[in-house]
């Protein structure tokens, strides 16, 4: 729970939105329903370190969609004992994935790096609980 608070306070939640709400759906169970995907479903410029030099439609090489973090805690077992995070799987741990955030996320990544190690561990424990 401490990790979840820090996740919000640090600003991770500005992109990895905890709660979204569906709109109209003819299926009642899907209509106007809150869910917790930990994404805003939007593209963000993530800086030169994540620029693969390829454009897709109108998206530049450094622009990536915020991935949902729900289920992140299951990734290790579902990916054969090792996690492969970020768009091309280059990050081999949650810690490494956070370190690779640049561009629009640079100031928030810096805030995370400046937190005490115990607080960083709390955030990662929270992410593994999703
Ligand atoms: C500016 C928006 C933004 C902010 C702020 C942000 N992220 Fe992200 N995050 C992204 C995007 C976009 C990606 C995907 C980048 C890629 O695919 O190369 C990502 C990827 C990740 C991943 C890897 C997920 C996967 O399935 O590959 C983790 C873990 C993560 N972010 C955690 C965090 C944490 C923790 C914070 C706060 C310290 C944070 N993010 C702040 C946009 C953001």
UniProtKB/TrEMBL annotation:
Domain Cytochrome c span(s) in chain numbering: 1-130
TM spans (from-to): none
A molecular function GO annotation: cytochrome-c peroxidase activity
InterPro entries per UniProt: Cyt_c-like_dom, Cyt_c-like_dom_sf, Cytochrome_c_Peroxidase/MauG, DHOR
Regions annotated as coiled coil: none
Keyword entries, A-Z: Heme, Iron, Metal-binding
Alphabetical list of SUPFAM superfamilies matching this protein: Cytochrome c (SSF46626)
Record keyword Metal-binding present: yes
A Pfam cross-reference name: DHOR
Protein name: Cytochrome c domain-containing protein
UniProt organism field: Persicitalea jodogahamensis
């Amino acid at each position: 729970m401490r990790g979840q608070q820090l996740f919000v306070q640090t600003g991770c939640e500005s992109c990895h939105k905890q709660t979204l709400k569906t709109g109209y759906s003819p299926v009642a169970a899907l209509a106007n329903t809150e869910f917790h995907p930990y994404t805003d479903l939007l593209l963000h410029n993530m800086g030169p370190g994540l620029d693969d030099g390829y454009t897709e439609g109108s998206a530049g090489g450094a622009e990536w969609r915020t991935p949902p973090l729900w289920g992140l805690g299951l990734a290790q077992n579902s990916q054969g004992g090792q996690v492969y995070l970020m768009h091309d799987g280059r990050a081999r741990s949650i810690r490494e994935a956070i370190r690779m955030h640049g561009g629009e996320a640079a100031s928030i990544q810096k805030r995370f790096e400046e937190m005490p190690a115990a607080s960083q561990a709390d955030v990662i424990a929270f992410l593994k609980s999703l």
